[in-house]
Amino acid sequence: MIHRRNLLGAGALGLAGAAAAFANPEKAADLAAPAIARNRRRFNMVTTWPKGLPGLGEAAERVAERIQQMSDGLMEVKVFAAGELVPPFESFDAVSNGSADMYHGAEYYWTAKSSAYPFFTAVPFGMTAQELMGWIDFGGGQELWDELSAQFGVKSIQAANTGHQMGGWFRKEINSLDDLVGLKMRIPGQGGDVLRALGGSSIALPGGEIYQSLQTGAIDATEWVGPWNDYYLGFYREAPFYYGPGFHEPGASLAVGMNLRIWEDLTPGEQAIIKAACESVNHTSLGEFTYQNAVHLDLLTREHGVQMRSFPDEVVSRMAEAAWDVRADSGRDGIEKRIYESFEASLKLMRGWADVSEGPYYAARNSNK
C-alpha cells in the first residue's frame, strides 16, 4: 500500500527519472514501474445479520464501503448477509479457518469458544457504550481482546455500537419473578445465563429466525436490539408487551473479526485503513441508533399500539444479583480471569464518574420535563 503523499513524491521522482532516461538510455531499465505499482486486496466478509437489516446490516456494509473509499479502491470488501455464504453462527469459524476473510457480528455469539467473549459485546448490568469504548480503547481491553482472539487465529476490532438496548418483547406481562419461571426467551450471552438463574430458558437464535419462532410459540419472548431494528423485524405483531430497561445489554458493541494470518500480511498502512474504517462506523452507528430508536419508538407506540412496560423492582433486583454471579463465574482462570478483572476494575472506576455526571443529570433533566 502506498499513501497519497508517497505517490505524489514517487510521481515527481518518476518524472525526473524519465528525463534522465532520455539523456542516458542505458539507465532506462533501472526506472521501474515499482514506484507506481499498486497492490489490490479483495476480501469476503460474512455477517450474522439478515440481509438489508437497518443499523446492524448497514454497519457491515459501511465498514466495507469506507475501507474501499479510504484505500482509493485498492481494498475491496464483498459483504455476505447471514446464510448467503455460511450460517450466521458459523461466521467465527469461517474466519478462523480461513474460508472467509472477515466477519461482522457480536462477540458474545462466540461464548462457546471462550466465556470472556461477552465482555467485548455486553454483559448484564455492565458498561454503557461510552464506558465500553473507554475500556477497550484506553483501559487495556483491546490488548486483552487481541490476546484472546489470537488463540483462534482472529484479529477483532470494534465496528458498531447499538447503545442501550431494550429488555425485550413478551407475549404476556411480567408482574413478578414467578412469570419468568419456565419462560422461553431468545436471549444470548450472559443475559441468557441470568434468565436461566431465574428459572427461565435461554434460546440462541439468529435474527432471521426470531419472528417465526415467536409466531409458532417456540419462544415466549425475545430481545433483539431496540425500537429501530425491532420495528423492521415486526416483533410487535406477535408479542405486544415491550419491556425496559434492557438489563442485559446496556451498550452492545459489534465487531469486525479478520483472519489473523491475512491481517498480519497487510502493510501497516492497510491495517490503519481497516482500523480507521471500523472506528468511523463504530462512532457513526451510536449516534444513528440513538436517533433512530427515538423515531421508531414513537412509531411503535403511536401507530401500532405497542404497550410499554417496566420490569417490576423485585425482578430488576434479582436480575442484578444474578448478573454479578454470572460475570464472576465467567472469569475464574487464565485469560478469562484477566479479562474479567480488567473489565470490573474499569467499570468500578467509570461508575464513579457516572454517579456524579450523567446519572444526576438525567434525573435533573427528567424532573423538569
UniProtKB/TrEMBL annotation:
InterPro entries: DctP_fam, SBP_TakP-like, TAT_signal, TRAP_DctP_sf. Substrate binds at Q165, R186, E223, E249. CDD domains: PBP2_TRAP_ketoacid_lactate_like (cd13604). Coiled coil: none annotated. One of its GO terms (biological process) is transmembrane transport. Na(+) binds at W224. It holds the Pfam family DctP. Keywords: Metal-binding, Signal. This is C4-dicarboxylate ABC transporter. Residues 1-23 form the signal peptide. GO terms for cellular component: tripartite ATP-independent periplasmic transporter complex. GO terms for molecular function: metal ion binding. It comes from Hyphomonas atlantica. It comes from the Bacteria.
